[in-house]
Design a protein that fits this description.
Elements lengths: L8 H28 L2 H15 L4 E10 L3 E11 L9 E12 L1 H5 L3 E9 L4 E8 L3 E12 L7 H4 L3 E14 L6 E13 L5 E3 L7 E3 L3 E13 L2 E10 L3 E10 L8 E10 L1 H4 L3 H12 L13 E8 L4 E5 L8
Antiparallel strand pairs: 1-2, 2-3, 3-4, 4-5, 5-6, 6-7, 7-8, 8-11, 9-10, 11-12, 12-13, 13-14, 14-15, 15-16
Length: about 325
């Protein structure tokens, strides 16, 4: 060993014994653990835990491998959710690649912090960080070009095929104390459309009489929500096109754990005359809608449709008629 300064033999011996040898041992230990860690068992454990937390769901991971020292990379991830009603098809979400990395310094301080990056099947990426401490949980995410038509679970809430490209940012801190829960959400769905001319929509009050819905172009939908003292208030929820005019307002109350949170939002949409008169099928649809008695609960005095989306994250979120509700400005 050649050093730029002179050391006594005793100092050299102590340097090797108390510094170099321990570092070499630590390097060998980390390398051995890294190469021999039972990643297959970790994959099976993740699948079991998700399926236990979501009864009826199936999580399949083609491969789980190490990513540097503190991370793992999952490829071929598919989450299938069971049908909620008889005759309904299961829905699935596919991720091409998922990389997650644990923050060691946060872990030493008693906080679980995981950075993640996911590529979705069919296009789009989600990158961010999840941090869970004793008194608060923080979620940060940046979404780019996420293809909505490839997110199967959305079909449960819309009933019809939905297409568009989702992007934006989420930065939310949910604390045990409502006063410390804060953040903001800014999202845009570019080129939003609903229906494909083949799928059927069930009209309230006319069960079993599904109607085929022509594609309805909704333009670009913009959502902005500010969260203060545990309550997220929708400051903007708008979309406008030649077919549709949509507005929304309401609140999301965030609690810890997240499944206890609840939403209460009113959506108002006016379907414009060019879409109503597009062809014989669209004209027939609105004739049937006007005849359905249960639809009256959804009609505002000016003829627009209004519905309330409300419920708990942990149980169910349902839509109901809100024709008499006043949409906050």
């Amino acid at each position: 060993m050649n050093l730029p300064f002179s050391l006594s033999e005793r100092a050299k011996t102590n340097l090797r014994r108390f510094v170099l040898y321990p570092l070499w041992f630590l390097f060998c230990f980390v390398t051995f653990a890294y190469c021999t860690f039972p990643y297959d068992r970790v994959r099976d454990r993740i699948e079991d835990e998700v399926e236990r937390a979501m009864p009826g769901a199936e999580l399949d991971i083609v491969d789980l491998s190490p990513s540097w020292i503190t991370g793992v990379e999952l490829t071929g991830v598919s989450l299938t959710l069971p049908a909620e009603e008889e005759g309904e098809r299961p829905t699935a979400l596919t991720l091409t690649t998922v990389t997650a990395r644990v923050g060691l310094l946060d872990l030493i301080g008693g906080t679980t912090s995981v950075g993640f990056y996911a590529e979705l099947g069919g296009g789009g990426t989600i990158e961010g960080r999840y941090s869970d401490g004793e008194t608060s949980t923080q979620v940060q995410a940046h979404l780019v070009d996420v293809a909505l038509q490839r997110i199967g679970p959305l079909r449960r809430y819309v009933q019809l095929p939905i297409a568009g490209t989702l992007g934006g940012d989420i930065d939310v801190t949910i604390a045990d104390e409502a006063a410390n829960t804060e953040g903001q959400v800014t999202l845009t769905i570019a080129g939003l459309s609903v229906g494909d001319g083949r799928a059927r929509l069930e009209i309230p009050g006319m069960r079993g009489t599904g109607i085929t819905v022509e594609q309805l172009n909704a333009g670009d939908l913009n959502l902005r929500m500010q969260i203060e003292r545990g309550v997220g208030r929708v400051q903007q929820l708008t979309s406008s096109s030649d077919d549709l005019e949509l507005r929304g307002a309401g609140t999301v109350r965030l609690l810890r754990p997240l499944r206890m949170s609840n939403v209460d939002v009113i959506l108002r949409f006016e379907i414009k005359q060019p879409y109503r008169e597009r062809n014989d099928r669209t004209r027939a649809i609105f004739t049937m809608v006007d005849m359905a008695p249960d639809v009256r609960a959804y009609r505002a005095p000016d003829g627009a449709f209004q519905l309330r989306v409300a419920g708990s994250f942990g149980s169910s979120i349902r839509a109901s008629g809100a024709g008499n509700a006043t949409l906050a400005q």
